[in-house]
Amino acid sequence: MRERIRVGILEDQTVLRESLVALFEGSGMEVCASGGDVESLLAQMQDKPLDVAIVDLRLENPGNWAVDNGLRLVEVLRERYPHTRSIVFSAHREAPLLERCFQAGAAGYLCKLNASGAALLSAVEQVARGESLVPPELVSLNPGASASPLERLTQREREVLELVAAGSDNLQISARLGITERTVKAHVSNLYRKMGVQNRVEMAVIAYQSGFARPPPPPQQQAEFPK
Question: How far is 63 from 16, CA to CA, in rounded Å?
């Protein structure tokens, strides 16, 4: 039996949040965390990590009318929980904002104004499989956006790739970046998927060919002296 997809929901509108919980649980998914602010969702994730997080961008706090930005959660998940993939679920459709979401680490974007329940469920399943969900309007405005797999990498993934290309192993990367070895393994797995490679050598070759990293210098040969 396939393990259920674990979902978290960041949405400040209570009625919509409860509707999303019912939608996901009714489809067989497991809603492990839900809330209207970033801190409460992160606190709920301490006990059970998520596969996919549904993230609203504009979060209003009725207590003090403060407005928070859901992109904070996307960035935190990218750094602390690289196994958790984010789908931004918002009414905003401006191309610069969509680009910011993907730069922050989002795996997908879905517009609230025209998305059906079936489309949202399909998006969660797609992202949980490791795929990306790029809105058509962003692709049409940036026809070359998918030309290079390196353009889809987060900043942390780029740092890991550079060290992999330099010949570092996971333990060395962990020490260099100040993250756990498990987190390094998660980033490397994401690099395999995003770059479409099977091993670290292929990964390094793509990095060299794109000019992203330089090949390490060949080892210095010791001079041979006559015996």
Answer: 19
